[in-house]
Amino acid sequence: MVTVERVWEALGEIPDPEIPAVSLVDLGVVRAVTVEGARVRVEFTPTFLGCPAVDVMREQMAERINELGAEAEIDLAAEGWSSDRITPEGRRKLEESGFAPPAPGAAPTTLLQLQEIVSRCPYCGSEDTRLENLFGPTPCRSIRYCASCRQPFEQFKTI
Q1: Torsional sign, CA 67, 69, 71, 75
Q2: Phi and psi (nearest 5°) for 44?
Q3: Confidence band of 115 (pLDDT split at 50, 70, 90)
Q4: Hey, what domains does the chain have and what are their CATH numbers?
Q5: How do beta strands 141-146 and 152-156 pair?
Q6: Predicted confidence (pLDDT) per residue in 76-100, tens digit
Q7: Burial class for 57, CB neighbours closer than 10 Å (0-12, 13-18, 19+)
């Protein structure tokens, strides 16, 4: 019999298509899981509306649920994603992978705040960093540069 806990565990094994170091659950895109008999409904929210990985995420979740012996129904949530949805484990994994996660509970950032924000380098821990490019590979990330270790790194924007 499929349980909510087993579905969450299975979804927690699916790597994010763009950042494989974190799972869909770590990133906080999975909002809710309900089980009714052999039917599992998952509600999820991509990190931004135009995310090109929505179909990939939907297919991966359905495949995992089917492997559990259940029928999957994967729906987009009406609510938008927030960087506060990243789990503590997800923040740790992001940092270990060279990404600077946003501070939990922080207010959304403006362009001026992004330029002035003090971001700790995920490689050396220095706070001597600066904004290099407002837009990274996706709209939810920017590129920063560490003056201490001379490494560029991606900073998740607070959304």
Answers
A1: negative
A2: -140, 160
A3: low
A4: 4-76 (3.30.300.130), 96-156 (no CATH)
A5: antiparallel
A6: 998 888 888 999 999 999 999 999 8
A7: buried
